[in-house]
Amino acid sequence: MSDKLIKRRRLTMSWNFEKEEQWLNEMSRDGMHFKKASMASSFFAKDESVRYTYRLDYQTGQKLGSSKFQEYIDLYQDAGWEYVSSYGSLWHYFRREWQPGEEPRLYTDRDSLIQLYKRLQGVMAVMMLVNLVIMLANMVNLRNFFSGDRLWTIGLPVTVLYLLLFGVLGYGCWRMQKKVNALKL
Amino acid sequence: MKEMLPLTEAFYYILIVLYTEPSHGYGIMQDTEKRSGGRVKLGAGTLYTALNTLLGKGLIEQYPVPEGADSRRKMYAITENGMLVVEAEIARLEELLNVGRQALITKKG
């Protein structure tokens, strides 16, 4: 086992956290164990002698290092989950040693899973609203950019960027709603 | 209070376990699994979310950790309201069971 961390591109979106879990689990199967995540990369430690099952948890209102956060990871630890790291104090990575035929989960009933998806959806909805306010505020400033050739250099690119962000967030909200609906009877 | 019903299995087991005596998260997990004959295994995320919801609704509360116990583990106790809710749920379940059993007997009879 070496202490050197290996960097890999990370391209998953928030609503695809199950896919990220799957990826981390496959990496772990191949001896690459997730340590921490940054904006666009994930870092792994190589160790052929172990294999883990990784799970992501999403919690708002957690301050890393606070006593509330300590209670949170203590509870998960009691349940057999080792705390690995957090990303942006919202996403928390846990793992436990892999066992054949076992599929351990953090969320074991429909209601708590629905709550989890709704927490995610709520944050994306808020981000959309914030984005809207910023966009409108900027539109007022940018109004003079929309005239003449500035339209192509500033006006249009900025608008496209905002719309793209809207699209991504809107799509995320919609995906969460689909997941919630699929769970409801 | 009625709007809390029906309780999810997780809520129900947490309240039932705490009805007997105050406990910590890990104790609730183990006790739930034992009492359900191994059927109900509360995931850490499910338990954590449920405890926070129950605290928020005032059905359970923090309980001071007794001397000598592991102070790292936060303890929970059921409140008066929590007892009322779980008793109402048991009455509701009893009605459901009775109606169902009655139907089975009538059919066979």
TrEMBL record, chain B:
InterPro entries: Metal_resp_DNA-bind_regulator, Tscrpt_reg_PadR_N, WH-like_DNA-bd_sf, WH_DNA-bd_sf. It comes from the Bacteria. Residues 14-85 form the Transcription regulator PadR N-terminal domain. It comes from Paenibacillus glycanilyticus. Coiled coil: none annotated. This is PadR family transcriptional regulator. Pfam families: PadR.
